[in-house]
Design brief:
Chain A is an alpha+beta fold. Chain A has twelve helices and 19 strands. Helix content of chain A is 29%, strand content 21%. In chain B, 32% of the residues lie in helices and 26% in strands. In chain B, helix 1 runs parallel beside helix 9 and helix 3 packs antiparallel against helix 5. The chains are: A alpha+beta, B alpha/beta.
Chain lengths: 457, 471
């Protein structure tokens, strides 16, 4: 009896997901919890583990397709159940270069055949066992594993344990780290050789594709852009498409206004130098970002309108302060959230920010960790920008851009002095936040940073 | 059917009898075939138990000789050993323990088939000597163990040129004894007979005593042996040994290429043990062998379905499979649980403790410093001498040390090596530390009771991180 594999529910508000890549091919042996395929939703990218051990007998939803939550996307069964393959083929697929067996369904699509739509029966069967990625549950491990996890900023809960009672062993975590290193960079992983065929029905397809497949479905395309000779055409990643959508939506939705403040970071810098070693001993890197976050949470508490959302004709003043931290990735960006940031001290913030940033880069965020932000910080300064003009992360009403923090000449008591300075930009939605309110908020943040309380470290 | 069993186990040594008990506990109908007159195999009858009994006699003699130091007044006669009493006490202990295994068999309703087994095709075991019959078995476990082996050119006559089998039963203390091999067996008998008054010489082919131990352990043992009057000829090869009416003439080649002649009452060959499969019919059964050992996978399956093998008789194909009683019994439990359909994990042979009951005792687990460096670890070590401890001073046993080998990168404990009082007991903490993937930091934070010998373990951990407290 094959086990159905379904598109998991990656968060409360997510109804569908796109299969970005099949890690396993039809005929491949899979272990329970071994990564089976990669998905992308509008919130998060994730690797989905296999719900059972066995052989991947059938792939029902191909790479690049978007299907609803709980749709059956594949089946795990026995080797002799491989769809469309006799026993001989099943045997062959176990040996080395099974690559020829894998792309079969892709070819089918290239011929113009459509995917078999999931039947209601499939859906009924699949809803029995919606596969959830392991949450943030505590995992058994060992002192050594915890030490390695700390050094590599790895969440042990993400690792499946092979020891007694599911204990994560040294072998498990080293394997996990090794796997992460070997995983191809997302940009190179996506476009397989079969990709151009599957991307056929788009308006910007290369002209070399057979005319029948270029039948334009142009309704949504504002204009036709044709590549010139020598140009390279690549399908947008799912993340890229989502970013494009979100940014234009935000730009259309909010009345963006900006205020830029010049902030003296000398006190922060002094404290950072003083406390750096101590924090390092406690396993945390003390960054400017932690100080800024700490200053922000106090100011957000005092200026609730900045920590709010617009819902039609209502204003929702958020009770929780959940800080989104924009993290640049090789192929896009993601905004993981530090929940209840106001309940954390400087050390807690340092740890939390480092943790989510690292896991964002290594694609190990839980779906819930990109939800529920109430205010966002972005840091164009890390690449040298004096200041940025960031676009608001909907449905929030403000965003802080941190410019580069560096020593600059400033006037101190009618003399020119050298101080560690940075421009902080607040981008805010003028529909809700007026200039005066925004500037009072920023003045508050500035004061918190310039007179950072040493007792708060 | 009276002769039909779920599991037939061949050999009642530590591997076989433990496997049998575990199988029975898990609801299997079990028979064990054993040709010897008692249960327990090499460990109980010929190895661990009798040698350690003799070592306790040697220790008792040592304490009595120091009676003056302890303030105990003895009659003027020089304390001496009575081999008759030694042997009868030792035999009592051995008999008591083998009877204990018999009792466990009865308790678990395990049948002891007295005789010699021969594999007779799928699911069948012939008993060719003793209670002749054919047993039917769903699963067969071979646990036939090992026996002492010689080296080329030396013929064991069991009178003058002997193995450990004879060495445990000597009726009188030899005046001179040459021991070939400085593994556990060699150095243990060296300790026993030196205490009993024998002139002992150990000849070891490799450059140091107990060559599988950490180098620091070897050096400490050699130092101690020298003090006790045990001669060690390392890097030396025995080229000839001829037994005569009055003793053994031995020729050995020393590292400088010279030939050295020795004579001794007895030559004990302690050069390792080989697998026992004679008459078992392994070849006819189609079982894959490797250098005389039965080849098994990591869950002890042989190449023939439903036939497993454990203990000294097996090879896992790679690495050295330790021939130790506690390894065999651990394998016995794994094989029994696997047969009973439980989910079992392979044994991690890096976490097998090794205990040598020479004087001073050696206990070790994990990688030696040399092995760790060879494997490319960024190694840091720390050691702490027992002599500093109050507890050791009270006991008058200040020899030796505890040494920890750790990986600098993650602070992982890679190996723990100890020589000195109670080392064979103290190593248990280190085994657990390795098993649970402990860091040195954790060992430092573990509170060691005072005054105990175990404080040396905690202090060695401190030393690994920089400095011990009491040094």
């Amino acid at each position: 009896m094959p086990t159905p594999v379904v598109m998991p529910q990656m968060g409360e508000s997510i109804a569908e997901g796109t299969i970005v890549r099949w890690i396993k091919k039809v005929g491949d042996q899979v272990e329970r919890d071994e990564p089976l395929f990669e998905i992308s939703t509008d919130k998060v990218d994730a690797e989905i583990p296999s719900p059972a051990a066995g052989v991947l007998t059938d792939i029902k939803v191909r790479e690049g397709e978007t299907v609803g939550v709980n749709t059956v996307v594949a089946e795990i069964g026995q080797a002799n159940e491989v769809r469309g393959a006799g026993p001989a083929a099943a045997g062959a697929s176990r040996s080395g270069p099974a690559g020829t067996a894998g792309p079969a369904p892709v070819k089918q699509q290239a011929d113009g055949q459509s995917t078999p739509a999931p039947t209601p029966a499939d859906k009924a069967a699949s809803s029995i066992a919606p596969e959830q990625p392991s949450g943030n549950g505590r995992r058994r491990s060992s002192p050594l594993v915890r030490r390695i996890a700390k050094d590599h900023n790895v969440d042990i809960a993400q690792i499946s344990g092979s020891g007694i009672g599911g204990r994560v062993t040294k072998h498990d975590i080293l394997g996990y780290l090794e796997e992460g290193r070997l995983k191809p960079a997302p940009t190179t992983g996506a476009p397989t050789t079969a990709a151009p065929a599957t991307t056929a029905p788009t308006t910007i397809a290369p002209t070399t594709i057979a005319p029948t497949t270029t039948t334009p479905t142009t309704a949504r395309a504002p204009q036709v852009v044709r590549p010139a000779g020598g140009d390279r055409v690549e399908k947008m990643s799912v993340m890229r498409k989502k970013i494009a959508e979100h940014m234009t939506l935000s730009h259309r939705t909010s009345a963006h206004v900006y205020s830029v403040f010049h902030v003296n970071f000398s006190t922060v810098e002094k404290l950072r130098q003083e406390k750096k070693a101590e924090y390092e001993q406690r396993g945390a890197k003390l960054t400017y970002m932690a100080f800024i976050a700490r200053a922000l949470v106090g100011a957000l508490r005092r200026h609730p309108v900045i920590n709010a959302s617009i819902d039609g004709e209502n204003v929702i003043y958020r009770n929780d302060i959940n800080l989104g931290i924009a993290v640049a990735l090789d192929d896009g960006l993601i905004v993981p959230v530090v929940k209840n940031a106001d309940e954390k001290n400087l050390l807690g913030l340092s740890r939390a920010i480092a943790d989510i940033a690292e896991r964002a880069r290594s694609k190990r965020l839980n779906p819930d960790e990109v939800h529920g932000g109430t205010f966002t910080i972005t840091n164009p300064g890390q690449f040298g920008a004096q200041f940025g003009m960031p676009i608001i992360n909907q449905p929030q009403v403000a965003i802080l851009g941190v410019g580069t923090i560096e020593k600059r000449p400033v006037i101190v008591n009618d003399a020119i002095g050298i101080r560690t300075m940075a421009y902080l930009t607040l981008g805010y939605d003028h529909r809700l936040v007026d200039g005066a309110v925004a500037d009072q908020f920023m003045a508050d943040v500035k004061e918190q940073l310039e007179c950072f309380d040493a007792n708060d470290c | 059917m009276p002769n039909s069993y779920d599991v037939v186990i061949i050999g009642a040594g530590t591997g076989g009898y433990v496997a049998a008990i575990r199988c029975a506990q898990l609801g299997k109908k079990v028979a064990v075939v054993e040709k010897q007159k008692a249960l327990g195999g090499t460990c109980l009858i010929w190895g661990c138990i009798p040698t350690k009994a003799l070592l306790e006699h040697a220790h008792a003699l040592k304490v009595i000789r120091d009676a003056k130091e302890w303030g105990v007044t003895l009659p003027p006669a020089t304390p001496a050993i009575d081999m008759h009493q030694v042997q009868s006490r030792k035999d009592r202990i051995v008999t008591g323990l083998t009877k204990g295994v018999e009792f466990l068999f009865k308790k678990n309703k395990i049948d002891w088939i007295k005789g010699t087994a021969r594999l007779a095709g799928k699911g069948k075991v012939d008993i060719v000597e003793g209670d002749k019959q054919t047993l039917e078995a769903t699963e067969i476990v071979i646990a036939t163990g090992s026996s002492a082996r010689s080296v080329p050119g030396i013929e064991i006559d069991h009178t003058r040129i002997i193995t450990s089998d004879e060495a445990i039963g000597l009726k009188e203390v030899p005046k001179t004894l040459v021991i070939l091999g400085s593994g556990a067996v060699g150095v243990e008998f060296a300790s026993i007979y030196r205490r009993f008054g024998t002139e002992v010489t150990i000849i070891e082919l490799l450059p140091r005593l107990v060559p599988i131990e950490d180098e620091a352990i070897s050096a400490e043992l050699e130092k101690s042996f020298k003090k006790q009057g045990i001669k060690s000829l390392t890097g030396t090869k025995v080229t000839k040994a001829a037994a005569g009416a009055n003793g053994v003439d031995i020729e050995a080649q020393t590292p400088d290429g010279k030939t050295q002649k020795l004579t001794a009452d007895l030559l004990l060959v302690a050069a390792g043990r080989g697998p026992v499969t004679t008459g078992l019919g392994v070849e006819q059964a189609g079982i894959t062998m490797e250098k005389g050992y039965i080849k098994v996978d990591d869950l002890y399956r042989t190449s023939v379905p439903n036939v497993s093998a454990i203990g000294d008789v097996i090879t896992l194909g790679s690495g050295v499979h330790p021939q130790l009683a506690h390894v065999s019994s651990a394998e016995g439990i794994v094989v029994a649980e696997r047969i009973a359909g439980q989910d079992v994990a392979p044994i991690n042979y890096d976490h097998v403790p090794s205990c040598t009951y020479c004087d001073p005792e050696i206990g070790s687990v994990g990688l030696t410093e040399g092995e760790a460096r060879e494997k490319g670890y960024d190694v840091r070590v720390g050691s702490f001498p027992f002599g500093v401890l109050g507890r050791a001073k009270m006991a008058g046993e200040g020899e030796g040390f505890v040494k920890i080998v750790a990986d600098k990168k993650y602070d992982e404990i890679l190996g723990v090596h100890m020589i000195g009082p109670r080392s064979t007991e103290l190593v248990a903490e280190a085994v657990l530390a390795l098993r649970l993937e402990c860091t040195v930091e954790e060992l430092i934070r573990t509170i060691h009771a005072h005054p105990t010998f175990s404080e040396a373990v905690g202090e060695a951990a401190h030393a690994t991180h920089g400095a011990a407290i009491h040094l």
